[in-house]
């Protein structure tokens, strides 16, 4: 099924859907290079393809989506072996860019991931069904557009929180390694190290092993052995007291 146009949409200045649709693409099916005069988001239900946008090429697959921004040249093409099956919605409005920013989508970051559940699949399914509701399709589609954006905004918040947790973990691991580098020649107690870093001892040990692949104690032993091999026996004895 190709583009489904909806000229009977309500005149909503905040956010307005122009059309939506779904398609199981044949091999190498493509669009562009060309521009749109509005925003358009594709979400991939299955298969693979490429998206060229803003001088970058993205290789995409099931569970990913891509944003086309107004007046920016874009091109997309289905894979030759496993062509994608996707849905899309096109929209604009005074606050469209604001909602997209909340979803962390922009000309510089046009890709999103969503494969945790079937909410987006169900949302597009309801859009396709709403088109054929004669009296209220404009209201139904408008509400589903808000729902669609809300889903990817919520996912963006969860992704940002997960990234922040990863950054914090990496920061703690870096602090541990730096402490060992500066104090390896002295007696290091794990409890004192944990207190210095500001973490619970057990959590710190678990975090370090998860990130580095060996226990903190083994890392310390290996670090000291490597350092001992880098200096003369006399220097090593002097460092050990």
Structure in a nutshell:
Keywords: DNA-binding, Transcription, Transcription regulation. With 241 residues, the chain is α+β, with helices and mostly antiparallel strands. It contains seven helices and ten strands.
Word description of this protein:
The chain is an alpha+beta fold and 241 residues long. The protein has 2 domains: 3-160, Regulatory protein AraC (Jelly Rolls), CATH 2.60.120; 184-240, no CATH class. It is built from 7 helices and 10 strands. The protein has helices spanning 96-102, 119-130, 137-183, 190-197, 201-212, 216-230, 233-240; strands at 3-5, 16-24, 30-34, 39-46, 48-53, 56-61, 64-68, 74-78, 85-92, 111-113. The chain is elongated and about 75 Å long. It starts with a strand and ends with a helix.
Q: What characteristics describe this protein?
A:
241 residues, alpha+beta, four-stranded antiparallel beta sheet, 7 helices, 10 strands, elongated, DNA-binding, sequence-specific DNA binding, AraC-bd, HTH-type transcriptional activator RhaS, Homeodomain-like_sf
- Helix fraction, binned, reads 40-55%
Main beta-sheet strand count, sense and barrel state: 6 strands, antiparallel
Radius of gyration: 27 Å
How many domains, as an integer? 2
Give the quaternary arrangement of the chains. Answer: single chain
- Which segments are poorly predicted (pLDDT under 50) over 5 or more consecutive residues? none
User: Can you tell me the CATH superfamily of the largest domain?
Assistant: Regulatory protein AraC
Number of strands: 10
One letter per element, helices H and strands E, the order comes to: EEEEEEEEEHEHHHHHH
The first-level CATH class of the largest domain is given as: Mainly Beta
Structural class: alpha+beta
Mean pLDDT across the residues is 83
